Amino acid sequence: MTGGINHQNGGFSIVVDKSIASVIHQHLVDGGYINNDYVIKDLGQHIAIPITNPGVIRKLDWFDEEKLQFETIILEPKKSTNTPAQEIVSKIEKLLVANSLIFTKEMVNFLPKKWELFSDLAIVPSDSLDSKEWQDLFSKNEALSEEIWQIIADSLKVSRIARQSEIANDKLRSSQVKMIVGDSGEVEFVDYGVKFWLDVTKVMFSSGNVTERHRIGSIDMTGEVVVDAFSGIGYYTLPMLVRSNAKHVYACELNPNSIDALTKGADLNAVSDRLTIIEGDNQITLKSLSRMADRVHLGILPSSENTWQLAIDCLKQSGGIIHIHMNVRENEISSFVDYCLKQLKQYAVHREFNVVELIHLEKVKWYAPHIRHIVIDVSVK
Ligand SMILES: C[S@@+](CC[C@H](N)C(=O)[O-])C[C@H]1O[C@@H](n2cnc3c(N)ncnc32)[C@H](O)[C@@H]1O
What we know:
This protein is of the alpha/beta class and 381 residues long. 31% of the residues lie in helices and 25% in strands. The chain has helices spanning 18-31, 54-58, 84-98, 105-109, 132-140, 142-155, 210-217, 237-242, 256-268, 282-285, 308-314, 333-349; strands at 12-17, 41-42, 46-51, 69-71, 116-118, 121-124, 160-163, 178-181, 186-191, 194-199, 225-228, 248-253, 275-279, 295-298, 320-329, 356-368, 371-380. The strands form four sheets. It has a seven-stranded mixed β-sheet with strand order 13-12-11-14-15-17-16, sandwiched between helices. The chain has a four-stranded antiparallel β-sheet with strand order 2-3-1-4. A four-stranded mixed β-sheet has the order 5-6-7-8, covered by helices on one side. α3 (84-98) packs antiparallel against α6 and α11 packs across α12. The structure holds S-adenosylmethionine. Residues 171-173, 206, 209, 230, 232, 235-236, 252-255, 258, 281-283, 299-300 line the site of S-adenosylmethionine (SAM).
């Protein structure tokens, strides 16, 4: 073999007899000379090791011209084993270095490390690319901002990106999400066999409640009339119609954008004929559903307490089940359950129900340190 330095497929290689390959490989690893973009190639008696800097390697004391050569070998690029978050960092680093720009640790801290995916749209956290250093850079170079957002979209394999903001602290749980790549925030997706539709720029979707959505969707509600007092876009209404087979769901909702989404979701699942949407404040609208329901769902946080009595009034004379969502401190869960049952018993008296009992306690998720989002299922007869 003749010596020579070659550059194929963007990588140099050093060809080594297999009998000494592990020793040489270790020298290369120790010195940091391995080119990790390519795969080592088996040549029979020899192997080709991808390397970064032949000029330097040639001068090292272990380098032996007789036994080691640099060869023209076409090397196979390594399949990326990077996570999308690592890919974002490395691609943006390459772009900035190519533009002679500095990539600081603080800038890395403001790249997205988690996101929510809705088919081809990803929602990234509110602080993504939102720091002084990134803003200073983009104010001087607007095109760079577009290029970087496109790198993020490509790494997440989506065509649209939206950036999260705090959910509006209003009754409507309005979304503050802003589109960054792409214009429309409308998404359609399937979860546990149920189709959902929403515009992420208008309403929020609590993906953290997934286990509870699936649990509710696994309860057999055949023949039941259900009242969903805080339906939103149908997080629970649609699973109850599609999976639980409820006979009819009355969905109470204030927010016209959520009602629009629920209407579209019901159409997509072909369950509109078993759904009545009641627009308005449920403090008023629940009164029109008095004595109609086998089941009432109270899916609001931090507390649904102001609807407990209305929920009892919605139950049929034969009684039924109430699902109560609540944020509760971990060490106060059992006293909360006692308190809730005591209150419901008081409200139940005028309906002449004499059994109010807990049939299930579900710990849905941690809402904040020490605070759990829980759901209790209460049977009232
Ligand atoms: C948290 S969201 C729905 C959440 C869904 N149940 C979940 O846990 O993912 C609560 C919904 O209740 C609606 N809402 C809040 N107060 C209401 C009221 N007084 N009457 C009717 N709807 C109300 C909001 O507009 C919002 O869509």
